[in-house]
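Deliverable D5.2: sample structural annotation.
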Amino acid sequence: MNKLNMYCLSTNPNNLDIIQSLNYIPVGLGEKTFSKEWLRDNTGNNISKKNKYYGEYTFHYWLWKNYLNKIDESWIGFCQYRKFWALEYKDKNRISLNQLKDLTLNTIPNEYNDAEVILGNLSSINEFKPMKFFKRGLKLILRKPSYFFSSKKRNIKFHFDLWHGENNLSKAIELLDKENRQGFEDFVNNNTSFNPQNMFICSSKKILNQYYETIFPWLKKCEEIFGFENLSGYGLTRIYGFLAERFMSYWFQKYTKYKTMPIIFYDITNDPS
């Protein structure tokens, strides 16, 4: 077993006791008041005011700029108050908090010793409810009706266009350096699955720093195109987080030795205990 520092991100100060009971490090996001036990993303060099648009990545930025060099050499992981790493998958409606505690990670199992990074199990873009899909992408489907009826026509790019604005992903890709521009474009055009939830576990600070050095300058460039004021609806408002989610899958798959692990959904805010 290998030592693990797991940061659990939450927007709710009332989640503290449960997060600490999991032996995770509590991270408070958003504008609410958090007690001193929480790490916050709004001190030092930070982009905390962009949390509405960046989601979890305002903490990643803070960690990169203010805290990464203070962490000892161990596995570094990230989860959320509704999404947790698990040794095996369980349906969220069939587990209790005590079962969650038994399933979640506190150390890295030996079978992951040869991995540099752990990503969530792949999520297929073809797992959708047809009517929701149809209502969401009516204009796109009217132009490309075969995409609705044939899963072979769909890919990560089509899925992003459908939920986060047509051609927005293509515009963002154009801002990448030459190597990653072609690589990421191939990834979103040739795949129907990606590692979801902006969750990952790294075996070293070096890998994490390399990832941050690539993604944050790119997201900053994307701000020049998309801005903030004209973004409306969850799919567009959180566009920087969604861009990061797709890029995360590409980057870690391309540049690291990785393995996957289940992610289970369990909202500790709603826990009755």
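Annotation notes: The first strand starts at residue 2 and ends at 10. DSSP finds 13 helices and twelve strands in the chain.
The annotation will be released with the project's public dataset once the embargo ends.
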